[in-house]
Design brief:
Elements lengths: L1 H17 L9 H20 L1 H12 L5 H30 L2 H20 L11 H7 L20
């Protein structure tokens, strides 16, 4: 909620000052507040969502596919970082203050996804991750039985 609220604050301040036309002026005090809100958002993201893109994949992939999982994770992360870096200014020009609401919406979607679709992995050894995914209400249909240690009987 922390990241979400500061994205909304930044978008609201910019929206109030510039509207949908993109014309207006900022007083030094308003500019300072917007800068503070952006810095607080970045700090909050760096302490919460930011590291999860690196930490979670390294902990949820079974040992057999961990290197490939991390390689895919790094590649996807770098691609989207490049993509956002290339298109941020264009999106800002077109969406104006709505861009900050867009990113707030992305934080909301991430939060909902994690809450409902990410199983608790605290205290689970890496060798048991297949079982965690196989027992999850949503992901179980995507995990083959042989991915779980002791998941099928040898007769």
């Amino acid at each position: 909620m922390f990241c979400l609220s500061f994205q909304i604050l930044v978008g609201s301040f910019i929206g109030l000052k510039f509207g949908t036309t993109g014309t207006g002026t900022l007083t030094p005090a308003t500019a300072d507040w917007i800068l503070v809100f952006i810095c607080v958002y970045v700090a909050g993201f760096a302490w919460s969502w930011g590291p999860l893109g690196w930490l979670v994949p390294s902990e949820i992939c079974p040992l057999e596919i961990r290197p490939a999982g991390q390689a895919i994770n790094v590649s996807v992360n770098m691609f989207f970082t490049f993509f956002i870096g290339q298109f941020f200014l264009t999106m800002l020009c077109h969406m104006k203050f709505g861009l900050f609401y867009f990113f707030a919406g992305m934080v909301a979607i991430m939060t909902i996804f994690i809450y409902f679709l990410f199983p608790e992995t605290r205290g689970v050894p890496i060798e048991e991750m297949g079982r965690v995914w196989k027992q999850h209400w949503f992901w179980k249909s995507y995990i083959p039985d042989d991915a779980v240690i002791g998941g099928h009987d040898e007769n």
